[in-house]
Structures are given as structure tokens and as C-alpha cells.
Design goal:
This protein is α/β, with parallel strands linked by helices. The protein has nine helices and seven strands. The protein starts with a helix and ends with a helix. The mean pLDDT is 97.
Length: 233
């Protein structure tokens, strides 16, 4: 991409695109994430399959707040315009932890609707998560500092589990490890998957024994993500 604004606002796997692009994956980072310089093996493989990865620089404590949603909407629109993509170019949401929360919420609120979503060890219940660890309240108060609504309503607006009735009818893939000590599998993915399935939505759920929070991720889990994303096209 040539636009300096785009280069300042996101990272992409464009150097690894070896065929004509056929889809865009917007990948959201976790809590504390920032500037990207390197591609993951998954992102290289997606590039080789013609899937452009766009990783927005949302800020380390964004929690997919209203400003972030507006920013990502404008960023994706600018990427599509820069590269000459039209509305037929599919968009896929992807992210882990806070980024998994963001990927789910972007399916809920985003201007351009994703055709599928990959949520890795995601935060699904922000009302619960606010009290889950002592480091979290600071980040939530920063993200929602000037919101006028009652605090419980603000957290529910940014909680995929509390927005489940408004989630789009698209395929979802959840991955969560049994040894996650940062985002409780039982409190988040287990409940979100059950709620989506209760609505009759299509959900795949890979429960990985021994996998921690972004640690000990087996190759099979990486392959599952690639197969799911490629299978949407």
C-alpha cells in the first residue's frame, strides 16, 4: 500500500501475497498490543493463499470502544479503496484475547460485515472480565473514560456475550485452551459458544488440552485457523 496514513494505522502481510487477493482478514491484537513488524507463519500462509491480513493499530487498551469501531470502519474502507477492492471482496474477522473480543464485536457493529469470525481464547463477557484480574479495571476505565451511560450498560455494550442476540448469522471458530489462566475458558468461550449455538448459529469449537493463554499453541490449532478461513471462500 502506498498511502502513508494506511501505513501508520495498520500492518499488513502484503509482501507475502503471491497470488491475486481474494479476501481480507482483519486481525485484532490483544491487550497491550502495538506496532507490528513481522508476520506469523499463519499470516505468511494466508498471503500465499491470496488472503490479505490487515492488523489495525487500535491502541493497547481499546476494548473495541466506539472510537475504535469508527477507526476500523474507516481503515477497512480505505484499504478497499487503495487496493481497488469492491463490495464482493470478502472480509473475515480474527483476533485473540482482547482481540478475540474485538473480532466478535466487529461482527456485531462493523460497517462492512465479515463473512466469518475466528476468536482465539477470547474475552466474551466483559462484565465478568472486569473483575477477573486486578490489572483489568484500569484498561476498561481508560477505554470508556468519557462515556455518559451507567457502567454496567457500557460493559454490556462491549461484551459479545451480552450482544449475542444481535450477532450475525455467519460461521464462527473458537479456540480455547484448558490451561488458560488469563481468560477463563469456562466463563468466556464455553458460555459464548453455548449461547450462539442456542440461537442456531454455526460454531466450531476447538478445545485444546494443555494450551495456555497464547502459549503452547499446537500446529493443529494454527492449521485449523487456516482451513477455516480458506474454507469460507
Amino acid at each position: 500500500m502506498r498511502d502513508p496514513w494506511l501505513k501508520a494505522c495498520c500492518w499488513t502481510n502484503e509482501p507475502y501475497l503471491t497470488v491475486t487477493p481474494r479476501a481480507v482478514t482483519v486481525t485484532f491484537h490483544g491487550l497491550g498490543g502495538g506496532i507490528r513488524t513481522d508476520a506469523t507463519p499463519l499470516e505468511i500462509a494466508l498471503g500465499e493463499a491470496g488472503i490479505l491480513v490487515v492488523a489495525p493499530y487500535c491502541g493497547p487498551w481499546s476494548w473495541m470502544n466506539r472510537n475504535t469501531r469508527k477507526f476500523v470502519d474507516e481503515l477497512i474502507a480505505a484499504v478497499y479503496a487503495e487496493l481497488g477492492f469492491d463490495d464482493r471482496m470478502p472480509l473475515i474477522a480474527h483476533g485473540g484475547s482482547m482481540g478475540g473480543c474485538a473480532a466478535l464485536l466487529y461482527c456485531r457493529y462493523g460497517r462492512r460485515k465479515p463473512i466469518g469470525c475466528v476468536a482465539l481464547y477470547p474475552v466474551c463477557d466483559t462484565v465478568y472480565h472486569y473483575h477477573e484480574r486486578p490489572d483489568l479495571p484500569t484498561s476498561f476505565h481508560h477505554a470508556f473514560y468519557d462515556y455518559p451511560e451507567p457502567w454496567e450498560e457500557i460493559l454490556q455494550e462491549h461484551s459479545p456475550l451480552h450482544q449475542v442476540e444481535s450477532m450475525p448469522d455467519i460461521p464462527y471458530l473458537f479456540l480455547h485452551g484448558s490451561a488458560d489462566d488469563r481468560v477463563s475458558k469456562a466463563a468466556h468461550s464455553d458460555r459464548m459458544v453455548a449461547a450462539l449455538r442456542a440461537r442456531g448459529l454455526g460454531v466450531e469449537y476447538l478445545e485444546v488440552p494443555g494450551m495456555g493463554h497464547g502459549r503452547n499453541i499446537p500446529l493443529s490449532a494454527e492449521q485449523k485457523q487456516f482451513d477455516f478461513i480458506a474454507g469460507l471462500l
